[in-house]
Amino acid sequence: MKRRERSESQSSAARRDWREIALLKFSAHFLSQRRSKLKHDAKELCVVKMLELRLVQGSLLKKVLDAIKDLVTDANFDCSESGFSLQAMDSSHVALVALLLRSDGFEHYRCDRNLSMGMNLTNMAKLLKCAGNDDIITIKADDGGDSVTFIFESPNQDKISDFEMKLMDIDSEHLGIPETEYHAIVKMPSQEFARICRDLSTIGDTVVISVTKEGVKFSTTGDIGSANIVCRQNKSVDNKDNETAIEMNEPVSLTFALRYLNSFTKATTLSNTVILSMSKELPIVVEYKIAEIGHIRFYLAPKIEDEDETQS
Amino acid sequence: MDAKRLTSRPSVGTNGESKTAVNKQVNHVTSSKRFQASYEGPPPPEIDEEEFDEDVFLEEILGEEPVTDTGVQGIQSRLAQWRRPAPPQYHNAYDNIVFQQLEIDYIIDESSKELLPENKGPAAVLRIFGVTEEGNSVCCHVHGFQPYFYIAALDTMGIDDIPKLRQTLENRMRESGKNSRASVCVTDIKMVQKRSIMYYQKQKTRNFYQIFVALPTMVATCRGILEKGIHIDGIGSRCFLTYESNVLFALRFMIDCGIVGGNWIELPARKWHDRMDMRRLSYCQIEVDTLYSNLISHPAVGRYSKMAPFRILSFDIECAGRKGHFPEPQHDPVIQIANLLTVQGESKPMVRNVMTLKTCAPIVGADVMSFESERDVLLAWRDLVREVDPDVIIGYNICKFDLPYLIERAQALKLSEFPILGRIQRSRVRIRDATFSSRQYGQRDSKEVTIEGRVQFDVLQAVQRDYKLSSYSLNSVSAHFLGEQKEDVHHSIISDLQNGNPETRRRLAVYCLKDAYLPQRLLDKLMYVYNYVEMARVTGVPISFLLARGQSIKVLSQLLRKARQRNLLVPNMKGQLGQETFEGATVLEAKAGFYEKPIATLDFASLYPSIMMAYNLCYCTLVRPDDMKDLQLDPDIYNKTPSGEMFVKQAQEKGILPEILEELLAARKIAKEDLKKATDPLEKAVLDGRQLALKVSANSVYGFTGATIGQLPCLEISSSVTSYGREMIEHTKKLVQERFNISNGYQYEAEVVYGDTDSVMVQFGAPTVEESMNLGREAADYISKTFTKPIKLEFEKVYYPYLLISKKRYAGLLWTKPEKHDKMDTKGIETVRRDNCLLVKNLVTECLNKILIDRDIPGAVQFVKSTIADLLMNRVDLSLLVITKGLTKIEGDYAVKAAHVELAERMRKRDSATAPGVGDRVPYVIIKAAKGAKAYERSEDPIYVLENNIPIDPHYYLENQISKPILRIFEPILKNASRELLHGAHTRSVSISTPSNSGLMKFAKKRLSCFGCKATLSEGDQTLCSHCRGREAELYQRTVSNVRELEQLFNRLWTQCQRCQGSLHLDVLCTSRDCPIFYRRKKAQKDLSEAEVQLERWEF
Fold first, then answer.
1. What is the pLDDT of residue A19?
2. What is its subcellular localisation (chain A) (predicted)?
């Protein structure tokens, strides 16, 4: 470590020379590009870039905010042509939230360029509280502006309110968990999952989730005792939502902090089912589908014995 | 063991005996005595100080066989050159021996046959260690002084009852069975005419028995017997209150002989006997026997006020610890010992030496001794101590670490001949655990290492006592006082350096030498020698008591001395816990605001001491309500205090406490006047030390009477003092407002804006400083006249402008002369509090500067905003965010969970070596954690935070650290301060960094975002989104210049650290937690590497 420190300081001079050369190279490169660039700019100059999203089911946005505002305080919303998304770690950096609302789920979706909007989620949730459950919500932002506007229209168009919120400049890294094949995927009623997490947290701080062919077992131990809850696979014929289904390549057993799982279940209102995807030594994914339009995924790293004080 | 044989010098032991000697020694070293029941059982009661005599029998400490000297070959001649100068030949017949004593202890030995032919059996022999003017060491054995105490005789008891009393006591003492060594326990009982110091009595004296016992510990046993009750034939069962039975034997001796700590003692010719070579017990150059009645003690005036050229040894050891463990003496060797010998009064050290294990390259200006085995290092050090014969041993944390470590290490190596470091031949160093607890200084654990005849002065303990600092590491203490940083080598690196080559060991040796040199420099800089010797002389206690014991022994010592002069006795009345409390000082209501007119401050000079003097408050002038009838006192010969107690006036009987105070204050006045005249900086320092010692002593007298668990509490006195104080403040306020108003012909209306314990702040209304000063002086004189002497109200200073926040919290520019302000003075504001981070301190100081000095309120607001923005953007140095708190108790003792305690516990689990222990100050920062996590769960070690890139929680700092102090300052000035300062636009830019150690980061992938607008980049783009491509040149330039700036910053910090370690060619090893540069360097390094990664993305 120390040695590295030193070598860095000494080699920095050499690196500076290298950079000088790079700068020259770059100038040449830049000049060549400039011409084509100017042309391109002229084409776009007349258009005012902006963002405008119109969501008919305004209540969805309210529910999404309720689900994540306890985990994340400040975050950047990323808007691109494909959709409206958010990736953020919770303040203790143990859990990660990934939200996606696809552009095709909006009634109207205009995003002229990729845009990142920093918002304080507590304040945003406060604003969205002002929207009625049936209201249509429109999100509007001008390019380069420092605020975002929320417009709430009542279903019969007799009331239109707009709220402006100042944006924040949040300097953070964009994080994402790559998609992988999971060893076990459990689909179960979201109410059921929320209840299990709540019940178990009265006994202990952590839960062991074990998936076998027969079913999925949630168990915990604490000072006052221990608890086990097993959910068997069942195919409910009349109601798909009540079904518990397990797809599994190999059995998995992982330990998680209940505190976080309980926060995730705030998203229960978004979907009737929850999908838990797990692999050995990988974070669990707790996914709630948001009707037709997207999903919200929570990632949580498993607890490894005798480690991870940050989780406790 | 035959005691007789031992005093005459034992013959060389046989083989069998030498074995027992070794075993015995092991016992000694390990015999640890719990001083107070602090480890086991319930938490210790808050005992201010508790002292016990401990009888040490000479035969117990001496090994039977003179240790075969297995010293190290080849260094004797080198050591010999540092010996003391040879002593002149003293002749008993016509030479007086004059020396400055530094240490007094006693030992149980056979009574001297020549001096006291009639005494038999073991007796306490006092040993005075000191230095003559020529620099020769002296050990003086003082014989014939017997421990004693007093009891009050019953009215029915007379001189005839003495034999009965003596016989009964003797029998009871025998039954208690602790003192089997002495043939007679109670050696004598005398009838004396004395009086108790408690309560005013008309009767001048009454009968007391003075009980002499054979050994000092018997005083306590005997006291216990008498207090519990004793049955005497013809008198019946009685309990006796004992007097002066809690005085340590050495102190008793000093009081009776008029000796004060660190004064000069003369042994007149023909009154001393030289110890012949055969009977010598010590390594001192001059060793004599005398009777206690022959000593002449000189008060510290004239030629006897100076210091003898005593020798001060400053040392430091280095140990090679194993990875991840703090060095333990059972396993880890001592690899280096650096020594610095300074003769008091000389500016340069006489010897600079370092002893190393294995070879070491030479060091300019230092004497390097290299040894092949650790045994040789230790023994060479022992020889060095013996040869240079230091009077004072100093170092940093030597009492808790270095000395115990050396001794325990020697024990682990089975070097029984090592721990003979004292001045008594063949006497081994004793070591025991001690817990020191005092209300004033808090509790701390320490090891008590007894090195006979040498004063130990741990600079760490002294600094901890006298200064409130945020960290007490040698590094930060020297940075604070000497303005100098030192590199801090983590102990895990030390082993690597040791296992390297002579050059790396040289590096370590230089470091070690510096560690030995700094305590000496601190000692000089802080004038500790002068201040402590002065304090010892003023209060009359031995120098070693000043560090090891609290305040009350000093007052007690003065009280006993004074009482002795007045033929009074001090009863042994321990105060009880949970006694009633009394009303404290008054504080006038503060009229908060920002005053732009001068505020004059009227101060009472030494308020509490003056009150005690003015109203003659003392133990011996207090009239109990019960006694009131019997005494038939005239109403005009006593004062009734506002709290309802009665004290007779000075004419009847002058109190002892007022007398002590008068002397102290008179002495202080002289010292202050001398200080004004003095030109020599050294002399100034001595005098300043003296006047400070006098002031502290005068003020502690009041505390002594109020300490309910102290030696001699008397709440009547302390509550009277505070009640007078309260009355005076109110009185002053009334007078000022009555007199200084427009109706009395003054131009303005005076208003008292605030008043504290001993000061009143007045706004006279005058717009200039000069006018206010004149009015202030006038008011002080006018009001002083209405008080009893010597209570005096003084006008000292004017505040202008003055920001009064609430009671005990204010800030202002202080003026003592009308031309220019002296400085900014603040009280109770976060500039001085220690449990705040540096950011708050800097912020508050800067704001006050802007508000008070520059009178630039918008500038101050702007400064707060930009600081808050920096904090949220994570641009603030970590060193500014470190909070430190002292770990005063072990974890279980804390009732509520505290951040620093929890952190200490977590750090102990991580690495027990670096984790802070009880008494240390714990530095921590608050990190981001799950919502709702308590502050104690979020505390983290700053270095761990740096290494793992853990994000700190700016909101904690904003809400819990910055907001309160800032709002306090701005609320009197600004409307809507909270909204303006804490919630403006500047709070909307934040930075969220990602830690490198979080559980999820192992799986997460970072996605690139555009340099320009932070939008996520689509596949294939490396640097910019299509939108920002036009700004490519600008953004690239920005990245490059960012890297360059960080490089320069890092290089500057790096060279700064290289300078500090004194070599520009070597790596920087320092990991000092207290050094702001260290944190900045680490942060710059991290930022730089991140910036370089960013730069590489451009791929040019």
1. 65
2. Nucleus
